[in-house]
Write a structure and sequence with these properties.
The protein is an alpha/beta fold. It has 3 domains: about 1-40; about 75-275, P-loop containing nucleotide triphosphate hydrolases (Rossmann fold, 3-Layer(aba) Sandwich), CATH 3.40.50; about 280-444, Ribosomal Protein S5, domain 2 (2-Layer Sandwich). The chain has 11 helices and 21 strands. Helix 9 links the parallel strand 15 and strand 16 (about 355-360). The termini are far apart. The structure holds thymidine-5'-diphosphate and magnesium ion. The site of magnesium ion (MG) has 4 residues, from helix 3.
């Protein structure tokens, strides 16, 4: 039996330390060191070595123009919204990490993916029994013999199964529950997660197959896994959403074979995840007419225009009490800043008001182009006067109270027009496309 020793591993960069400390001396992250027990003879792979082992070192320097560019084309997964995020599909020999909170729908998406894959695929579940996965597959209408199911916890068993069945796509669900038993460390520990992922990368490259691994993250992002693996894998896909709403967003955080600009949208239904080609329509479906505090914003996520409704509600509280500010789907410090700008630059005071702002549909807005819409929604709520039903607002708001230009104006206007908005507020001196039929109103 190998002698055990305790080490402290940074869950952000993977560096190992003999003693615990509040900050990782390698990457500077705070509170990222987690205790791990490893066997003295276990192959502890430093991050830099792990990364270097993946490269195909070229023998001699070449002029950049003389270096070959041929690479395997991406293979369509059969799921349009996923292909969109991957810029075409999965590349043979690549490893993709799908990260997301537990319960968000990762297993469902990947089961649908193996179901749509045109060749032999292997789905390894290390969290559910093969029977449970089969039942779910039936619900999702997956009945093909080319989909191989296996319930396994050991990396050795998984590699043996890949050897035996020669699939062109392997899904491992999840990296935190499998283990390489030659390493004396629990599944989910930093060392296990890193070694298992590294081994899967080697298998993918050696056999030229696409491997997808699931990694759970918590809201605090504290579990060893996704952050640690970002260096090792080719592609990192983040799967997000609010479990109380059906909409799910999928985006590439890192992609070695294409752009990371595309957003994929799915709706969780009782028959699994369905692609949402027209999200704006879906997000505005329940909008009520004539309600104060509601403003529609043509936002852009990646390359994709999305019309979202922002709702604000204010209510009076007794003087002396601290009023509550609640931001859902929106950064709370951004909301605080916009409230300050409204007060100082636009004479809209929320000093004795509780302010609730919410982005409808479980969407998270990080686009500064929605600032103006947030301000208008709050002003409309304070005045208790609805804005025109067919009004949409575009613009970033600066600390001076100015409305600033935002990228992709043309695409935003086009999306608003498509959904019937006829009055669009835009920043001053905006270049309005000649095709625009809606009346645009430029602010100072
Ligand atoms: P799951 O894929 O198990 O999430 P994860 O692997 O990320 O932990 O799915 C989570 C939820 O999705 C589950 O609570 C039930 C729901 N769900 C549906 O609404 N419809 C479906 O068809 C399926 C299969 C799941
Ligand atoms: Mg799962």
């Amino acid at each position: 039996m190998a002698k055990l020793r305790t080490v402290y591993v940074c869950s952000s960069c993977g560096a190992e330390h003999p003693k615990w400390s509040g900050q990782c001396s390698a990457c500077g992250a705070w509170n990222s060191l987690v205790e791990d027990v490893v066997g003295a003879e276990a192959p502890v792979v430093a991050k830099s070595v792990a990364v270097n082992r993946l490269l195909n070192p070229s023998t001699e320097p070449l002029p950049i123009t003389a270096v070959g560019t041929e690479s395997a084309p991406a293979q369509s997964t059969g799921i349009g919204e996923f292909d969109r995020v991957l810029d075409g599909g999965l590349v043979p020999g690549s490893v993709t990490l799908l990260s997301g909170e537990p319960g968000i729908g990762k297993s469902t998406l990947l089961l649908q993916l193996v179901g749509a894959w045109p060749e032999t695929s292997l789905y390894v579940s290390a969290e559910e029994s093969a029977q449970q996965v089969r039942l779910r597959a039936e619900r999702l209408g997956i009945q093909r013999d080319q989909v191989l199911l296996m319930s396994a916890l050991s990396l050795t068993d998984i590699v043996a199964a890949i050897d035996k069945t020669a699939p062109s796509l392997v899904v491992v669900d999840s990296i935190q529950t499998i283990a390489d038993h030659s390493i004396d460390s629990a599944p989910g520990s930093v060392v296990q997660v890193r070694e298992c992922a590294f081994r899967l990368v080697q298998e993918a490259k050696a056999r030229n197959i696409a491997v997808l691994i699931v990694g759970h993250v918590t809201k605090e992002g504290s579990i060893a896994g996704p952050r640690l693996l970002e260096h090792v894998v080719d592609t990192v896909i983040s799967f997000e959403g609010d479990r109380l709403h059906p909409l799910r967003t999928v985006r590439a955080v890192k992609h070695r074979f294409g752009s990371t600009n595309e957003l994929g949208l799915f709706e969780m239904t009782e028959h699994g995840l369905l692609g949402v080609p027209d999200a704006s329509h879906m997000l505005l479906a329940d909008r009520q007419a004539g309600v104060a505090g509601s403003v529609v914003v043509p936002s852009i996520d990646g390359q994709r225009p999305l019309l979202v409704e922002i709702q604000a509600l204010t209510s009076k509280i007794a003087t002396g009490l601290t009023p509550r500010r609640s931001a859902q789907g929106l950064d709370s410090s951004r909301l605080a800043m916009l409230l300050a700008v409204l007060e100082r630059r636009a004479n809209v005071s929320c000093a004795n008001l509780e302010v609730y702002v919410s982005v409808v549909g479980g969407i998270r807005l990080s686009d500064p182009g929605s600032d103006l819409g947030v301000c208008l929604a709050i002003a409309s709520a304070v005045a208790d006067r609805p804005v025109k039903q067919d009004l949409a607002a575009i613009g970033e708001v600066g600390l001076g109270g100015e409305v600033r230009h935002v990228p992709h104006l043309e695409r935003r206007i086009a999306e608003a027009e498509r959904l019937g908005f006829r009055t669009i507020i835009v920043p001053t001196n905006s270049k309005i496309p000649a095709s625009t039929k809606a009346s645009t109103c430029a602010l100072r």
